[in-house]
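dumping this here so i dont lose it
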């Protein structure tokens, strides 16, 4: 049986009514609690705890309903990111007790930004009924199609919030695969938004990124969000197939087609019929196989080796590579026509070194997973990581990206003699960076002496990131200053002048 739960912010009107400052009406929360039957009432509050407790005591007296208070600290009641994160944290905590709740979100109490977040969550991550209260119309259920959510949110409140703007563009519902991509940084939010959009378009997709950045994870999430979800997802590691077997593995063969062909063989492409073919490390595919793959993509037909007849195949292709395919095209190691056939949708996954805000989040995620996976092993001691060890991990460039991070943490956890993973365990678990990353070596590992000019080095770094931010925001200095952590438009302008960053 579902537990009917009302979730709402405590608004100013509610507080004033409970304190006797308003002589008319009961306030939105009390009105809703009286009219609609709820098993639970959960109230989020950014007010003083004493005021919130006074309100819940009054609510109990007026309606007979007990309410739980969930304090949420906000720097501003109009800050979308803080509101969103605070609400999601509370809802996750509620869901953790295993009760099957049917949520109702009250949009009237609080600021317009708070109301907007309820709308977004009700239409995406936490399906819920929406209600509103007014003296004129009382309590009523509101029906709000997600397509018009952007109109519901006051324009003045969303103009500076790109994330909210993206969420109101009619994206498909989130699937578990996307929610499992651990992230906080803006770069990953952008890529995930792009991936969710391309998922609903039945077109080829090329995912580019260094080894260990999560290309397979994205491919599976795109498939699960597409109209082909539930149909086959066939994964092929192009680099793991011997060159002489590539065609037979991709296209299949007829019994007797060659020595060793003792039975008919269904190829990977045919196995993906109605579903998705994921070609990992497509840059490793031999040129001859590239020609046949291109023909299969164009004609949607394949021919098994040894057969004359063709077979119509309905499939979507997702390709992934850690190579620069345009450079491979220039070197004539990859066909240009195949590249353009694959690169209709393109996702560029950022390396971990460009996601500094995500590093500690990922450390906690993998450590929690390690502890969870081994909780039934009596030999396993629950692991924590020391501040010094965490700091050491934050200094590492992670050329192997998320895969290297996960494996390093696993090794360190295994080698730690007790519950605490210390600096020594992390240092021992880290592989030395034999080939320094471009930029890392030139900036951080320069020799001390007469050739080192620290002020110029600092200026070099500043110019680099100022210009990147300027270009990525199309010259919007207000947006650019946020990307580089500067407090204001004017500070950004001054820094550009100071360090000679000329667009």
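and the seq i came up w/
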């Amino acid at each position: 049986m579902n537990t009917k739960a009302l979730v709402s912010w405590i608004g100013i009107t509610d507080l004033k009514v409970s304190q006797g400052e308003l002589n008319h009406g009961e306030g939105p929360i009390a009105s809703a609690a009286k009219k609609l039957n709820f098993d639970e009432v959960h109230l989020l509050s950014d007010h003083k705890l004493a005021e919130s407790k006074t309100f819940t005591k009054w609510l109990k007296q007026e309606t007979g309903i007990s309410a739980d208070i969930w304090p949420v600290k906000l720097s501003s009641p109009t800050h979308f990111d803080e509101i969103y994160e605070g609400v999601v944290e509370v809802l996750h905590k509620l869901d953790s007790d295993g009760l099957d709740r049917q949520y109702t979100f009250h949009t009237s109490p609080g600021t317009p930004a708070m109301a907007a977040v309820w709308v977004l969550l009700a239409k995406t991550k936490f399906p819920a009924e929406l209600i509103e209260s007014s003296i004129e119309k009382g309590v009523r259920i509101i029906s709000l199609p997600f397509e018009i959510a952007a109109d519901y949110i006051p324009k003045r409140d969303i103009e500076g919030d790109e994330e909210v703007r993206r969420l109101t563009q009619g994206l498909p519902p989130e699937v578990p695969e996307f929610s499992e991509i651990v992230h906080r940084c803006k770069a990953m939010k952008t890529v995930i938004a792009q991936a969710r959009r391309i998922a609903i378009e039945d077109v080829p997709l090329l995912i580019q990124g260094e080894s260990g950045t999560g290309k397979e994870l994205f491919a599976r999430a795109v498939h699960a969000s597409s109209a082909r979800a539930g149909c086959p997802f066939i994964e092929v590691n192009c680099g793991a197939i011997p060159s002489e077997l590539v065609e037979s593995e991709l296209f299949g063969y007829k019994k007797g087609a060659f020595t060793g062909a003792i039975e008919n063989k269904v190829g990977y492409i045919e196995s993906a019929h109605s579903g998705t073919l994921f070609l990992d490390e497509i840059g490793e595919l031999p040129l001859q196989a590239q020609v046949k793959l291109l023909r299969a993509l164009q004609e949607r037909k394949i021919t098994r080796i040894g057969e004359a007849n063709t077979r119509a195949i309905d499939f979507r292709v997702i390709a992934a590579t850690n190579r620069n395919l345009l450079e491979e095209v220039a070197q004539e190691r990859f066909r240009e026509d195949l590249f353009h056939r694959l690169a209709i949708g393109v996702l560029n996954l950022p390396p971990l070194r460009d996601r500094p805000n995500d590093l500690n989040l990922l450390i906690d995620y993998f450590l929690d997973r390690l502890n969870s996976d081994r909780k039934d092993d009596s030999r396993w001691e629950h692991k924590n990581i020391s501040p010094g060890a965490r700091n050491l991990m934050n200094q590492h460039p992670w050329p192997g990206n998320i895969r290297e991070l996960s494996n390093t943490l696993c090794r360190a956890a295994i080698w730690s003699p007790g519950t605490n993973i210390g600096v020594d365990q992390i240092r021992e678990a880290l592989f030395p960076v034999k080939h320094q990353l471009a930029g890392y070596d030139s900036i951080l590992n320069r020799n001390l002496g007469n050739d080192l000019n620290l002020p110029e080095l600092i200026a070099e770094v500043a110019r680099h990131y100022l210009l990147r931010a300027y270009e990525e925001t199309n010259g919007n200095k207000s947006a650019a200053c946020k990307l580089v952590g500067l407090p204001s438009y004017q500070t950004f302008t001054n820094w550009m002048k100071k360090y000679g960053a000329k667009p």
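The chain has four domains: 3-167, 178-348, 353-429, 446-498.
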